[in-house]
Hints:
Elements: E1 15-17, E2 20-22, E3 27-32, E4 39-45, H1 48-64, H2 72-88, H3 90-100, H4 105-124, E5 133-135, E6 141-149, E7 152-156, H5 162-175, E8 179-183, H6 190-202, E9 209-211, H7 216-225, E10 229-235, H8 238-249, E11 256-259, E12 265-268, H9 275-287, E13 299-303, H10 304-319, H11 339-354, E14 358-361, E15 378-381, H12 388-391, E16 398-404, H13 407-414, E17 419-420, E18 422-426, H14 430-439, E19 444-447, E20 463-464, E21 467-468, H15 473-478, E22 481-489
Parallel strand pairs: 7-8, 7-10, 8-9, 10-11, 12-13, 12-18, 13-16, 15-16, 18-19
Antiparallel strand pairs: 1-2, 3-4, 5-6, 6-22, 11-21, 14-15, 17-20
Helix pairs in contact: 1-7, 2-4, 2-6, 3-4, 3-6, 4-5, 7-8, 9-10
Amino acid sequence: MDSIDPDRVALRNAHFIGGRYVEGGAATLDVQRPSDGKSCGGLPLADADVVDQAVQDTWRAFKTSDWASRAPRERARVMRRWADLVEADVATLAPLEAVSSTRPLRDAAAWDVPFTAEGIRFFAEWADKAGGDVAATSTDHLGMTITEPYGVIGAIIPWNFPLVTTSWKIAPALAAGNAVVVKPSEMTPYSALRLAELAIEAGLPKGLFNVVQGDGRTTGAALCRHPRVGKVTFTGSTATGAAIMTACAENGTKPVTLELGGKSPQVVFADVPDMEKTARTVARAITLNAGQVCNAGSRLIVQRSIAQEFVVRLADIFAELRPGASWDPDATLTPIISLPQMDRIHGIVQRTVAQGGHILTGGRCFDGGPGGAYYQPTIITGVRSDMDAVRQEIFGPVLTVQVFDDEEEALALADHPDYGLASGIHTADIGRALRMARGIEAGTVWVNRYGRTSDFVIPTGGFKRSGFGKDLGRQAYEACLRVKSVLIDISKGE
């Protein structure tokens, strides 16, 4: 799939509750296409009443359907049918993803949709792979633990990879027997609706997967506070994650999974065997999706002896990128999600320059671009760890450069006072790689690569203010189950 006419993509500005589309809400939100700034129409904003309607409907479906009590293999069969439908629906899902998000159409078709389908299959297979245990107790008692679903799980989805991250949240929850209420980002609301439709078509009981549209302040807060929501899972900014924890605590405690902000280092040693390959890996880690990735490798930490050569090569790679709409087959740099976000990116760059940083390349918006919001891939050298571009999550194609002389200094620079989501290490020395992997305080460490593969068994999640809990892997499935202890007296009795 190379291109589409964005004006011909059918969009539904609605909620999805009880297996059908529901119009209306207290207000509407204007959804704009980041590629050209045009409006996608008015999205209904779910107030507390609409959220209550959706959650109560989901709770009824959880209690009255046999989903939670159904044989795990049967749940898995429904989810595998769902995955097959998702994979076959690329002609609908990929345009829905590309039009309102920053995901290129070709990438959505070739990666996002198949990755989503395969993730659903992965969690479907966990349905009968985890359960309780028999505990070691005295011989006159039988002790055991039983796992059971929470009931209704609220999932709040970010805008940068909406289709993929929706599947990360809902697939383990449904496989474990839960029901879900999803709040997509108000900037990218469409693909979650189609996922819900396909789930019902696959045989999921109506009401087990509901979608409410709206913003975080109104809709997200109401979802977190609802007493019928047993757990909340969220991917997004650290500030919003803190607000979600507060909202969840205001109506009684409930568990949360939070994958939050990052300021991830890419540490490059002088012994890398292929400098060109490493440079392209480092460049892609900050320009993929225009840097709008939670684990973007935004801090280059490079050994002094190769720093000048390496950074010049990066600048040449950045110069190859061509901005364009998400449906433009020739574009190699996607738009920023909105003009306000682009202004924020530029503000951080300007403040860093005022603090003493030097722009090697980029540092401004594209002149005469294709409309929408496009920011030049930017390299800032001469930075210190206390400068804004080094400390703050920018969420744009901006790379800072710091140099080191030895392993100890590299490790010190890689550490960030606030964030610990991901990191990359590039070296030919396996011992050094392992020492660095142990020393870096981050939830994920990549060695001689940057970014995940389709190995869903490897979890993702951060340390420090980058959150807690895991998406993907066995850990994500088990986090959707609560543990009940049972102790039975089996003594003969006298």
